[in-house]
Amino acid sequence: MSPFLLLLFISFIQAETTKQLKQLISVSKIVQDQRGFIWFSGKQGLTRFDGENFLTFSSHIPNQQLPFTWTTDVQPVNSRLLVSTENKGLWLFDPKTGLSSPLNIKTETNSIYQAHFFHGQYYVYTESPNILYRYNPQTSTTHILSKDIEIAEFLISNNSLYYYNDNGVFKLHPDGFTQIIQAPTKKIIANDNWMIIATETKLTSYKNDQLKNQKTVNYKIADITFEYNSDNFFSIGNNNHISKYSPQLKNQNHNYFSDSKAQPKTSFHDSSGTLWLASSHGVRRLSAAHTINHERIFDIPISSIQVEVINNKIILGTYGAGLQALSNKEQAINENLTKRGLRITDLLTVGDEMYLATFDGLWLYKFNDNLLQKVAIENNNKILLKLSKKDNILFLATDGNGFITYDLDTRKVDSIIDESYNFSSPEILDILLIEDNIWLATAKGVDVYNKLTQQVENALVSPSKVVSLVSANNKVYAATKGNGIFSFDLNKELLNHFANGIDFDQMKNINNEIWAPSSNGLYRVSLYDDQLSMVAGSENLSFSSDPILHKNTIYVGHYGGVLEVPLTPKTLFNSKVYISKTTISGESHLLNKTINIDNSNEVITLDLASLDYRTGQDKRFKYQMNGGSWNNINGSQLTLTGLASGSYHLTFSGTNSLGQWSNFQAFTEIKVAFPWYWKPQMRVLYVVATIGLALLTFWLLYLRGKSINYIHNLLSTEAKSKNKTSLFVKRNLSHALALSLSNNEKMPAELQINKHKIEDILKESINELSNSTQQKEPDGLYGKSLQVALPYFIQYLKSKYQVRVTLDYALDENQLSEGLTSDIYKVIYEALTSAILNGTGQNFHLKLKHYNEKIWLTINDDADSFSNFKSQINFDMAMYFIRQIANKYNATVNTFAQQNKGSQFVISIPLRGLA
Predict the structure, then answer these.
(1) Dihedrals phi, psi of 378, to nearest 5 degrees
(2) Which residues pair with 806 in a beta bridge?
(3) What are 196's strand-pairing partners?
(4) Do the Cβ atoms of 449 and 437 come closer than 8 Å?
(5) What is the pLDDT of residue 4?
(6) Percentage of residues in the chain with pLDDT exceeding 90?
(7) Nearest-angstrom CA–CA distance, 323 and 14
(8) Could you give the CA distance from residue 575 to residue 581 in angstroms, rounded to a whole number?
(9) Contacts 24+ apart (CB under 8 A), 168-177
């Protein structure tokens, strides 16, 4: 790409804004409101500029309920703007809402050209007829102060109201205005302290209506304006010559320059340090340029320039015109250079000598002898791209042949690391030596050559050329052509990638700060946080060399000259950051507001602005939602949709025109309505219902606990009662038997037979009671195994309850703990006894086996003995014991009704996790 096309591409970045500024060809006044937005009044209406976008308010603009179009003047009045119009009277405009309200002044014409608010009243000037009015908004009364009057502009100074015209200055007194200064005037400005009067070629300053200073200038004055928040002021000549003066009319240094020939009608200096000039050719904004551009264009196809210093002189290395001095008066130093040697790619000073990397190898310039000669080394005809030096070794980066090391003491080649090594690309563009590692910037990435092992290791593969390497803070920074900057630690681990999309050139570490030239400006990179800031005044330049430091000044070559930058500390301008416009489903509102939407399908668009009007790099924005992580925004507009119901707090940050993040932030709230079933009222109902359900559950559990406790007490009482009754009956029966035996002889013979039968019955009853009291039921293993205990228990059930129980046993007890086998027996005992006593089953089948890491216990009967076994209301103690054991082992309990008559009880006990 040619330099012309490259510069054309760079300038396109700000072309759209410049185009819109040039369209403002009839601006009558420029002001800045309390928030920092710039406003233009003119034939187009009232226009707001936020540094990114223009927004015009006019009756010609759809969806705006504004009646006026041509605005003749605008003045800030507290938080609102006082707008004078050509044919629609006087209005108060709210820049926060975009709404306006008329001031009902009774005038003979609606053509108002000047208006000012002073001490609670409005002073209004109309033309055709020319009348000065005073309007009191408290009483809604309008009073004519003067007729047939000419007013150029109102002023306020020293708590007094003035106006001026071609004949002089007039001051408000109780009975009206009286003239205090008789002098032809071009423009008058005033602040709280000073009044500055400009005629065509003279400046005059007044304080407290007293003449202080006068100065004649050698140019025709077109306009004057105060510096923001200062008593100093700017004077703009009719050829846009800009001068700066103190109120004592002493010349002040400034950095504003304009190449426009259009005579400005009005000017303004804003809070960001931007000087605005409005003419019939549109509006121009000038940023202070703290740099000096030395234009040097040579008669060569590509005007690339390298810069170096030797003996306090700035020398330029060109891409076709050889060596040149920065001063135009000095001649070129090209004697003996070959045609290919005229194409210089890099310069490096070593003492009183300067080495040149050229298309014809390595050359040497001896300053003291003013001699230029080719270095006498073998095969010194390669294209060299970059020179680096470490101690006494000179490193030569070649175009396609690796690199060469040259000993400056012996003046001989030390080594050649050519294309036979495993480079990512043998085209070497920069070399950096760190201890035993030589870092190489190549056309395809970053390589590292180890001097000890003589091996090449690739640290980065890049889609674009790596053109520069810099070491700082134990890190290596690699700049690329269009792919930003990469940073590595000394172990070649990638740490960060930033500034993506910028086409960098050759960087340099100067005073622990990286200066990074690029195709669209000169950047300063902070080593603290890798943040970039652009050097003001460099945004339209495309750079071609690495920066050099000379006498506390940075010099950088570019396509068309050398930029001189004083090395001063970076200053931060904290630009105000705003949401300049909020659009909700097509309906727009100025600034930000609490956003309430009914559903997540609505689209929210937020236009962001950083109120820094200086020219520079594109501003960047990021946002944070509900205190989360920061997210970058592409451009200056954020669109949100699909938000879930709830509240969102958004925080926005932005950069100024130099790329520095501002300390100011913008905020907004978004509230997405909940569906009807999750509205706050419904949620209260859900909470009340949940609490009620919890209380009901607690009450039922309480009743269940009481019921279980009652069963325990009942069983205990019954056991005690049965034991006492059994003993009591046994005692009575024994006593009856004894009485029967004692009266044996006295009993008649015919009763002897029945008597013996009664005695047999009594003995049998006593034996049964004794056996039932002493005999213990088989309700536990008592040291026996399941294989022994289960058959005995089945026999016991058969003899006691006359039921038939069959057993299918397939279990290896050696794998089970004693506690588990005991609990299994307990489950079988409780389940069978409960089923027999509470059901009608006569035949039972018991199956016990181990399958799939579980113990399966299955009991079938020929009736419905197990049908209600899972009931949580009607249960007996057997069911309670079984559930307790099941919970202990995370077992599952199920009962089933079989298709034919019968029921089934199944419990599965998992063995996984059991000790």
Answers:
(1) -65, 140
(2) 845
(3) 189, 205
(4) yes
(5) 33
(6) 53
(7) 35
(8) 17
(9) 169/195, 169/197, 171/209, 172/118, 172/123, 176/145, 176/146, 177/132, 177/145, 177/146
CA distance linking residue 572 with residue 255, whole number of Å = 18
Burial class, 557, CB count within 10 angstroms (exposed 0-12 / middle 13-18 / buried 19+): buried
Instruction: Name, in order, each residue with C-beta under 8 angstroms of 710's C-beta and a sequence gap of 6 or more.
Output: none
> Strand locations in 227-366, DSSP E?
233-237, 242-245, 251-252, 266-269, 274-279, 282-287, 292-295, 305-310, 313-318, 323-325, 344-350, 353-358, 361-366
CA neighbor of 859 nearest in space, from 911, 820, 822, 824:
824
For the sheet containing 553-558, what is the strand order? Answer: 292-295, 561-566, 553-558, 548-550
End-to-end CA distance of the chain: 79
DSSP 8-state secondary structure symbol assigned to residue 623 = E
Instruction: Give the total residue count for the chain.
Output: 915
User: Mapping DSSP to helix (H, G, I), strand (E, B) and coil, where does residue 377 land?
Assistant: coil
Taking each helix axis as running N to C, give the angle between helix 818-838 and helix 786-801, from 0 to 180 degrees, rounded to the nearest 10: 10
- CA dist 53 and 584 (Å) reads 18
Q: What does the DSSP 8-state code read for residue 757? A: H
Average pLDDT, the chain: 87
What is the arithmetic mean of pLDDT over 652-659?
92
- The pLDDT, as a whole number, for residue 194 is 95
Phi, psi of 173 (to 5 degrees): -120, 170
Distances (CA, A) of 673 to 588, 601, 685: 20, 11, 18
Instruction: Write the pLDDT tens digit of every residue in 415-464.
Output: 999 999 999 999 999 999 998 999 999 999 999 999 999 999 999 999 99
Q: Enumerate residues 6+ apart whose C-beta is below 8 A from 90.
A: 82, 83, 84, 102, 103, 105, 112, 115, 122, 124
Opening angle at CA 459, ends 457 and 463, nearest 5: 120
Query: What is the predicted pLDDT for the residue at 737?
Result: 63
**DSSP per residue over 397-411, as a string?**
EEBSS-EEEEETTTT
d(C-alpha 284, C-alpha 236), whole Å:
13
Structure tokens at 908: 């599965």
Alpha-carbon distances of 648 from 452, 457, 594, 621, rounded to whole Å: 59, 49, 10, 18
Kindly state the greatest CA–CA separation across the chain: 171
* CB environment 122-148: b (16+ within 10 A), e (fewer): bbbbbbeeebbbbbeeeeeebeebeee
Q: What CA–CA distance (Å, rounded) separates 459 from 69?
A: 63
**pLDDT score of 20:** 78
Query: Which of the 8 DSSP states describes residue 543?
Result: B
| Sequence letter at residue 621 | F
CA 342 to chain centre: 50
Rounded to whole angstroms, how far apart are CA atoms 615 and 568?
19
What pLDDT, in 10s, does the model give residues 71-110? 999 999 999 999 999 999 999 999 998 889 999 999 999 9
pLDDT of residue 9: 32
Other CB atoms closer than 10 Å to residue 565's CB: what's the count?
20
Count of Cβ atoms closer than 10 Å to residue 6 Cβ: 16
Give me 354's structure tokens: 């300067």
12-19 — which CB contacts under 8 Å span 24+ positions? Answer: 13/520, 13/539, 13/618, 14/539, 14/615, 17/52
Give the CA angle between residues 755, 761, 767 to the nearest 5°. Answer: 135
Distance (Å, whole) CA 192 – CA 159? 7
Statement: residue 292 has pLDDT above 50: yes
819 — phi, psi (to 5°)? -65, -40
